Amino acid sequence: MSEVDAGAMSAAARKVSQPVECELIVEKDVRIPLRDGTVLVADVFRPAIAGKVPAIMNISVYQKDKLWIPPADLEEKANPHMNWETVNPEWWCPRGYACVRVDSRGSGKSAGRCEPSSYQEALDFHDAIEWIAARDWCSGNVGLSGISYHASSQWRVAKLKPPSLKAIMPWEGRADQYRDQAYHGGIFSMGFISNWIATHTAHHLLGRPRSFNPDSFQPDMLYNLMRNDLDSQFWRIASADWDQTEVPLYSVGNWGGFALHLRGNTEGYTRAKSRHKKLRIHTGTHFHPFHSEEGRLDQLRWFDHWLKGNDTGILDEPPVKLEIRTGGSPKPYPFRYENEWPLARTQWTKMYLRLDREQGHGAMDVEGALVDAPPATAAAVSYPASGVTSAGVASGSSLSTTHGGAGRLGISVETAPMSEATEITGPLSMTLYVSSSSEDMDIMLTLRNIGPDGKEVHEVGQHGQPVPLTKGWLRASHRKLDRELSRPYRPYHAHDSRQWLSPGEVVECNVEIWPTCIVLGKGHKLRVDIQPRDGVGSAPYTHYHADYNAGATNTIHAGGIYPSHILLPVIPAKG
Fold this sequence. Notes:
This protein has helices at 6-15, 89-92, 119-133, 149-158, 177-182, 190-205, 221-227, 233-236, 262-271, 288-291, 293-308; strands spanning 24-33, 39-47, 53-60, 98-103, 138-147, 165-171, 183-184, 187-188, 249-254, 277-282, 320-323, 335-338, 347-355, 368-371, 379-384, 411-414, 422-436, 442-450, 456-457, 459-460, 466-467, 470-475, 507-520, 525-531, 553-558, 565-571. The chain is of the alpha+beta class. It has two domains: 6-338, Alpha/Beta hydrolase fold, catalytic domain (Rossmann fold, 3-Layer(aba) Sandwich), CATH 3.40.50.1820; 347-571, Jelly Rolls, CATH 2.60.120. The strands form four sheets. Strands 13, 14, 15, 16, 17, 18, 19, 22, 23, 24, 25 and 26 form a twelve-stranded mixed β-sheet that branches. The longest helix has 16 residues, at 190-205. The chain is globular.
């Protein structure tokens, strides 16, 4: 439970592989044969040094030949061998590693039918790992590293247990394709995934790969995602399997990644069967921490230990390393070590909804408060489920998904100003009693840090954008829980059937809120927005607003027989 000591970090740095002067051997378009006769194409970067070296690999549809020109403020400087969200060969090879980038089947220069984030891709990755491990320059030890897609692919191949795979480091990587990426609380996350599919289809069919692979990108990906809108084997085979994940893992998340990756990193750490595992959660953009000196040192210490057998001391440290946010900094916060996740000393604190007034329309209006004790008297506040534009409630228009309408939708509640600095670190949940005039209802939660001046204190999102603290989502018809996997602080929804609403019927919904970390300063308030549509700081992870919202009225119930509340992970100050 101590902040990272600079002296200790310096001592650790002395134990890791040091760079040596050497030529960089670059092998372009290496052909990797797979078990079904398909051939993948890869680039191999390795140092011209005596002896065999371990390999760090990645596979993706992002095209190994696409040069990434980083921003000027990246700690690793631009060079001709950089590629989006992957390790930099010019830094790793002199430290005694080979770097291998593989074009996924049907993408880049690899032939076949492209199936991004699929079980087939995991099988292909397994075969590629074993083929690389058998090269005469390779020590036989392979590690996996990379951000986002390159992290997600690590979760998928880990369950197949390639014999030569010795360690993984999934950096900000979704793991459950249904819950983490496609359907938040059962609500289709269309904004990101539809744009991602369109963009990468264009990269392949309108870009350079068309010249040698004109039919590469699968044409019905978006259809398949929407057709399979309940959890099923379709999603399970393309996701992590924690019971089969035994490889040493260092799971790396980002507090600002609350709509795509962070859940995968915390679930992976808590549920994987790996004997050796660590968790790190930082702040900042999607890529700056990965390429920072501090971030690279963590990576090098991890892989030096598992791929080279060096004693870097990384397993002697507590397994959890967290940046503790104190609010509003564009720069990294200090890290703190912990022994477990969630933190053992957490004071799980219920704050109950007290509803005081009808829905307001100002951007910062509040309809009630978060209080220590459940109100004795029941109250309710109703609000429209759809916004109105100059075209009315045009749910048949394509613009209905992007034009929410004039005015504020939903309600908000706030705590009283903090009497002292209060830390909230960990997973959260919210229990709401709700009803609707329609057969279903979307619940979208946004947690916000409101300063003494009434203005929101933002954090840095994965894309460098200002974001709130975290979010949670649930479609009311998906409220069924998996009782075995659910915890009070992290409801786990089955998503395998629908429980439709009857008009006016009050039901209990337990909403999973993705983990967060914030020290709310004295005088600050915690605000929770409860809305039928995406709230502030949602883009680009916006959702499809289904037709049952059109013209419907939703109602939140609290107090009396309806103990609506939020469960907060309050961390006591050290004595």
